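I am writing to request your help with a piece of structural work I have in hand. What I wish to show you is a protein chain and, alongside it, a tokenised description of its three-dimensional fold. Could you please explain, in whatever detail you think fit, how the structure tokens follow from the sequence? You will find the record immediately after this paragraph.
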Amino acid sequence: IGAVIFDEFHERSINSDLGLALCLEVAEALREDLHLIVMSATLDAAPIAQMMGAPVVTSEGRAFPVTPVHLPKPRPKDQRLEHAIADLTTQALRDTKGDALVFLPGEGEIRRTETALTKALPKGCVIAPLFGAMPFKAQQAALTPDPARRKIVLATSIAETSLTIPGIRVVVDAGLARRSVFDPGTGMARLITERVTRAEATQRAGRAGRVAEGTAYKLWTKGEEGSLAAYPQPEIVTGDLCALALELALWGADEGDLAFVTAPHAPRLAEARNVLQMLGALDGQNRITAHGRAIARHPLHPRLAHMLTTAGRDAAPLAALMGERDPLIGVPPDLGQRLRALKNPKGFGKAVNQAAMSRITAEAKRLAKSAEPRAPLSAGAMAALAYPDRVGLRRPGQDTARFLLSGGKGAVLPDDSPLAGQRLIVATDLDGNPREARIRQAAPISEAELRDLFGDAIAWRNVCSWSKRDRRVIARQQEALGALVLQDQLWKEADPADIARAMLDGVRDLGLRLSAAAQRFVARVRLSQDSTLPDMSETALMEDLEDWLLPHLGGVKTVEDWRGFDCLPALKARLDWPQQQRLDSDVPAHFTSPLGRKVPIDYGGDHPAISVRLQEVFGVTAHPQVGGRPLQITLLSPAQRPVQVTMDLPGFWASSYADVRKDMRGQYPKHPWPEDPTQADPTLRAKRRGT
């Protein structure tokens, strides 16, 4: 081997990244015998050629100039896409010559645009849809020039790079692309429609300049073009990495061993390895198993390869079906109907997508040749082998057919689906909604089949948890497969420690409920200058619930129990004896009145405060203080109503007391109101009769 050819290594291909990294390894090994490096225009050859000491040969294709035409002003937000693109296409046909290529995100938009355009097309024009699911003959017709008529090809991004359409002189770009994005949170891929990137828009516009000068009409303004992203994200960042993880394990390599153009997304690679462990392809140390080597031999996604290897030849049609787009249009999401359609397509009439059905049939025959015969399994059982995390159990008490999947996610079937009444299903195709995915394909499975397949994974567990709905701790014993509960019964002998730990979640749900005494204690600690005292802010208390509250939660199970629970003993227990003594000295809990009565001090305001009857502080000539700070005293009438708030009791006696005395004597004549309160004895009693 005297040459290494680098060609078509686009960053959006996982396999291309792998291939480039591998070619670099080969080139390094052939350093002394390497005579030539041939590069595509997508890669910078110079650094690699310099490293290898080899010459570079490049060849650039011919391209004709393309004139861009932008919208003069932004498209109205309430204008439907098909109407906007039909208007722009009609304008392009009026102003230009040659065939036109219109880029749209998907089949639905193509069909709606076709309807909108049909009414406005000039004479001598013909519309030719082009998308991947079309029959082969229809695709060929779209690609073949029509000398007698002007052709308008309505295409998805399949026409960006993969196909050359002769005669195209005009491009009309809707500016949208539909992408498959893998969501590791749901373990599913979902299709999203996004704005094109500048690189994609340039590539699309270039289709108008393949045979002559052309024009590219863009459904956005010149100013909006600046907000487009430069390039689409590489697939190695957004895609499902199960195949990559299996390939790395097969090589005995780690992702850090290869010089990827774009490094794999680390969390998604970890999630892919978890899936492979679930399938038995990797062991606990992420090393490939014998089963992993067996499934790596099949040119399928590891899930489908695992199913084919385990279920055998009978799984070939299902593997081919699940690896292709849905061959039936407008048919309920029953996987069994798809399998029946493979055997008898005529029985489903116009609902059959003939192109997809042909591909599935051919693939099923090829896969059957590489599989061993095994004991027959139902469609649901085979599907569960591929998707053990998508076994669905119908949620009880629901009018709508809602299911909990074994992987922990939610999913829903249309109410009119034949599978809506099934207790157990396997969801093989979902829309990827992270909250509650809509099931697009599924098959029923019996509990007996589930136990035969996953008996080792089904186990009894004790569950003690806080129920937000019931607002209490629920203690149950459950037989479960992943998130699915197959049997459930009351756990009568639940450990009190488990109940207390579950109640902590209840506290987090309900929030702290501090009694007035507990609030005063927390305020005292927070005001103290003792740095050894624990942090008693609400944030710190919630973060440290296990440390201070858990040992005191015995017997607390419900919201009613929590409402009656006093946190004060648990809070006090956080302080040792010396800390308690210092706190009582620095920030005392009570003020002792001249009558010896302990009055709680409120530390919740700007100043420590108490409320006492005015007569109770007769004879006090120095203002009371705590910790070197004056108390804020609310003086009360005999009816416990505030009459004065002061932080200078001697000043009050000397000034405002005389006016208070005038008002109070008339209202409360039975109580003492001496002229000189500094000389009077404190009291809480009324005057004797006759005095």
About this structure: The first strand starts at residue 3 and ends at 6.
